[in-house]
Amino acid sequence: MMTQNTATIDPKEAAHFGDMAADWWNPAGSSAMLHKLNPVRLAYIRAAIDQRWPGDAHGFRPLAGKRALDVGCGAGLLAEPLARLGATVTGLDAAPENIAAAQAHAASQHLSIDYRATPVEAMTDTGFDLVTSMEVIEHVADPAAFIAALASKLAPDGLMILSTPNRTPLSRLAMITIGESIGGIPKGTHDWHKFITPEELTALLEQAGLTVIDSSGLSFDPGRGFTLSANSAINYLLTARHRQA
To answer: Phi first, then psi: what are they for 70, rounded to 5°?
Structure first.
């Protein structure tokens, strides 16, 4: 039964991604697109970290002493790199199958990550220095409530980094018409009508008391693959912080 604490979880979406759990770490499998996206996301996240907490830009553990929360973590494609960057990581996912796969893979890598099959609304922990949620908000039932829940977990001086598809004709073509037919994205993964524009997401963040401090488009180049760019027509990333008094 859905309760107020789990209001943003869409059971059909959770089941869809749970079915992919066993194949999540296969770079040629059903999560192939996420494997291709991950290095670009990490480059963006690393730049945001270095700007927020200046130190050794070439250091291997810029998140040492920091707490990170990855919401909609799947089987850990982002949580594991965050742990390697030095963070104490908590990963949440709506599908218990994903959490089981994440725990098994982290153990094989000798990484200690606190994975939980728990909705973010039900988690009592707060004060995370970094909150991430990649390609998740377009799958939740109530985006405004989801953003408010994420904001409630963020430390006063922390960073929130989100990525999601834009709602444009080009994103429909790239991610659904092509992506879910020959592009390696499992059929039924996306509902274009649930995609959120940068303006809409910015408004939701502002309603939650946050302010956007950086954004970047995420584009596909036939020669280089996925890249950060000024073009946000297909996908984009945003960095936000609590609004300063």
So the answer is: -110, 115
The token duo for 145 is 């409530």
As annotated, the binding site includes 41, 72, 93, 134
The one-letter code for the residue type at 59 is G
Spell out where 86-187 has E strands: 88-92, 114-116, 128-134, 154-165
Residue 109: give the domain boundaries. Answer: 4-242
Please report the DSSP string for 23-86 in residue order: GTT-TTSTTHHHHHHHHHHHHHHHHHHHHHS-S-TT-S-TTTT-EEEEET-TTTTTHHHHHHTT
pLDDT in tens, 109-131: 999 999 999 999 999 999 999 99
3-class SS of residue 142: coil
What is the tally of structural domains in the chain? 1
Contact residues for 123 (Cβ-Cβ < 8 A; gap 6+): 90, 92, 116, 153
CATH number reported for the structural domain that contains residue 221 in this entry: 3.40.50.150
Tally of CB atoms within 10 A around 172: 18
Q: Could you tell me which residues are annotated as the binding site for S-adenosyl-L-methionine?
A: 41, 72, 93, 134
In this prediction the pTM is 0.85
Q: What is d(CA 55, CA 34) in angstroms, rounded to the nearest whole number?
A: 29
* Least confident span in 14-23, 30-39, 91-100, 123-132: 14-23
Judge contact between 160 and 190, C-beta under 8 A: no
